[in-house]
Amino acid sequence: MMFSTIKEIVSDEDGAVTVDWVVLTAAVVGFGGLMYVLLNEGLRSLDEKSGQALADTEVQSISFD
């Protein structure tokens, strides 16, 4: 009796799509968090370097008089 009940629960597919979406959403959120952790410091350093390069650049003005 117990084995047949467990077998019925395992083979039941109602709600399986919901579980798939929950797992897929959790994977996407986890991947996004991982990318943030891995890229945060490198992008911050790149931002500082490019900002400093732009600040050090002298823009020449052209006169059409």
Task: Summarize, please.
With 65 residues, the protein is mainly α. The chain has two helices and no strands. It comes from Ruegeria halocynthiae.
Question: What can you see in these coordinates?
Answer:
- The chain crosses the membrane at residues 21-39.
- This is Flp pilus assembly protein, pilin Flp.
- Keywords: Membrane, Transmembrane, Transmembrane helix.
- The structure is a single chain.
- With 65 residues, the chain is mainly alpha-helical.
- It has one domain.
- It has two helices and no strands.
- The longest helix is centred in the middle third of the chain and has 41 residues, at 16-56.
- It is rod-shaped, with a radius of gyration of 28 Å.
- The model has no long low-confidence stretch (mean pLDDT 85).
